[in-house]
Every structure is written in C-alpha cells, then in structure tokens.
Amino acid sequence: MSDAAKGPGVEMRAVAAPDEGLRLDRWFRAHFPALGHGALERMLRKGQVRVDGARAKANQRVAEGQEVRIPPDVPRSHDAKSDAARKPSAAERMSRKDAADTLKSWTIYEDEAILAINKPFGLAVQGGTNTTRHVDALLAALRPDGERPRLVHRLDRDTGGLLLLAKTRRDAAALGRALRERDVEKTYWALAVRAPRPREGRIDLPIAKRGGYGADETDERMAPEGSGDAKKAITDVQTVDQAGQGPAFLALRPVTGRTHQLRVHCAAIGAPIVGDGKYGGAEAKLEGVARKLHLFCRSMRFGHPRTGREMTLTAPLGGHMAETWAFFGFADDVDVAWPDLDGPKGR
User: Who has the most CB within 10 Å: 72, 146, 195, 205?
Assistant: First the structure.
C-alpha cells in the first residue's frame, strides 16, 4: 500500500511473532492502551482500521507479519494530551500495592507463565460502557509500564470463578491456540430451577446473536435457532444433586465457547439458571436465595503453555453461591468426571 493510499498520519504496523494469535482488540489494548474499546469498534465499522488492507473485526485473530492500519487519531502512549483527557478507571487509581494485594487475595495458582485467579461475582473482566472497575484495569494498575498478565478467555461480569491469565504474549498465544482447538476442558457449576430431562447428556443447539452489538455485554442477547448466521454450540451437562424435585446442582462443560452459551442452553432445555433474568425471565427467580446469577467456573484442565504438562486448576466456591449451596446442603467439594466422548478435541 502506498503512502498516499494510507493517508496522512496513518501508521502501518507489522504484527510481531509474540502477538501471533491475539484477537485484534487485544492487540490494540497491548499496543495502544489509551484507545477505548468503543472507539476501536467505531474505527472498525468505518474501515479506518484494517488488516492487510481488508476490513477487520475486533474478534479476529492476527498473524505474524500481517500489517495493521493505524489511523492518525489513535492515541499513542506518549501523547500526554490523550492520556490526560482519558478518565482513569477506579482500578488505575489504585496504588500498585493495593492492586497487588487485591490480586494476591484472589490468586489460586501462579508460576512464570500463568496466573489463575478466582474472579468475584459482579466484577467485569474488561471495560465497557460505564464500566471502569474491571480485571484488565487492575492488571494495568499493577504493572503500568511493563509487560503484565494478559486475558486469554472471558467470564461474564455476573459469573464468578476461575479466570486464567498469561504472563507473556507467547504464553497467551499458546493458551489461545489451545482454547480454539478445544484442548482446554472447563467445568462450570450452576443452580438450575429444576433438573433437565434427561438428567445428563449433550446439548447440541446452534445459537445466534439477536440484540445489541455494543461493547457493553449487557446489550448482547443470544438465541437458540437454526438460521444461517447461527453458530455451532455444544454443552455437556450432568445433574450432580437436587433439592427434592426442585432446584438442581448442575455441572456444565462447554465444548464450544459462544457468548452466553451455558445460559442460553440451560434455558432452552427447560432448566434456566437461577438469577438469569435475561434468559430465564421471572422463572429464574427463586425464593430464599440471592437474586443473582448462579453460574461459577469451577475448574480448567489444560496443557501448560511452556512444558505441555497437563494441569487441573480448581476455584473454591464463594460469594452468594456458597451461601446457596449451604442452604440446600449441596457438597462444595465434588469432583466431576466427564466422558471422553470425542477424543482430545471433545474436551
């Protein structure tokens, strides 16, 4: 692409090897932290940000050697005026010691390559509309000038539990590949308003986005359907325990990773998750327990990004779900075994 075609002030930046496999929005977050997600989405819609000359989407993966078109109005880190204009998040205003202490109190496991935390319910993983307190900003406050742990997957704001982070870009790329290739097995715990029928099995039901497309996850709504734009979605389910004929303790294994997949699938089979008003409606309200989403990422099994050694990390149940489990007398130390239905790629 010629300089004239690029336009005045436009920068063309090649993707380096350590960034291989990163989502485009996360690539921008790593290199242009002052650029908000909403602003990036607007630039993508207008075609101002491109990859190898083609229009791009925030969730597409970048490859080493690709050229990313950077418009002139993307704030650079050295742009003091841009930095001053951007309102710092609550987490960014924390001292490094406070940020470190907070993350330490949530830490389940840490080594030279990965950091695993038990994310509290109600805390967003990334920023969005009117969201200034989130995990990503907390990590920025911890290491504002150097390489910091990177997100490799997401949990919804209202979902608690195990969140895995990578210490370097190379580790993030390795874990990202494992997630895309379904070499990471995740187990979630949920409280459903009733047990599904049958009590265990596989849900194979495509889902499509039917709602807002903003950065704020509360705008998003998914729906189970067989339309052309629906994406394959598979969830394994087991009923671990049940309070009489009432609420049921479910274990869920997402084989695919679609937005709100577990919530949509549980509602679709007549067992909506307690507290999930978006997909369960009034039926998801249960007397005697907190009116909050009862969904928790309990464990992850994966190969270590550097050694390949198989690891299983587990988050202890906490918050309102621990209170609900005690209320119904459910065990909070259950080990769930999943059948290897499809071989390694079915995990």
Answer: 195
Query: How many domains would you assign to the chain?
Result: 1
Range of the domain at 67: 3-85
**pLDDT the model gives residue 253:** 98
3 state SS for 293-315? CCEEEEEEEEECCCCCCEEEEEC
List the catalytic residue out of 19, 156, 158, 276.
156
For 204-227, what is each residue's pLDDT tens digit?
Answer: 999 987 754 433 444 567 887 766
Residue with tokens 């920068």: 11
The answer to whether position 290 is within a domain reads no
pTM for this structure? 0.74
> Quick check: is 336 in a domain?
no
CATH code of the domain covering residue 12? 3.10.290.10
Closest Cα to residue 136, out of 103, 158, 162, 168?
A: 103
| DSSP letter string, 110-178 | E-SSEEEEEEPTT-BSS-BTTB--BHHHHHHHHSSSS---EE-S---TT-EEEEEEESSHHHHHHHHHH
Is 156 catalytic? The answer is: yes
Residue 60 is classified by DSSP as P
What pLDDT score does 211 carry?
59
pLDDT of the residue at 330: 98
Contact 276, 267 (CB under 8 A): yes
Residue segments in the chain with a per-residue pLDDT below the cut of 50 = 1-5, 78-86, 212-218, 343-347
Quick: pLDDT tens for 278-297.
Answer: 999 999 999 989 999 999 99
Buried b (16+ CB within 10 A) or exposed e, 176-197: bbbbeebebbbbbbbbbbbbbe
Residue 110 within a domain: no
Task: Please check whether residue 186 lies inside any domain of the structure.
Answer: no
Nearest-angstrom CA–CA distance, 29 and 37:
8
List Cβ neighbours of 113 (8 Å cut-off, separation of 6 or more): 166, 167, 168, 171, 304, 305, 306
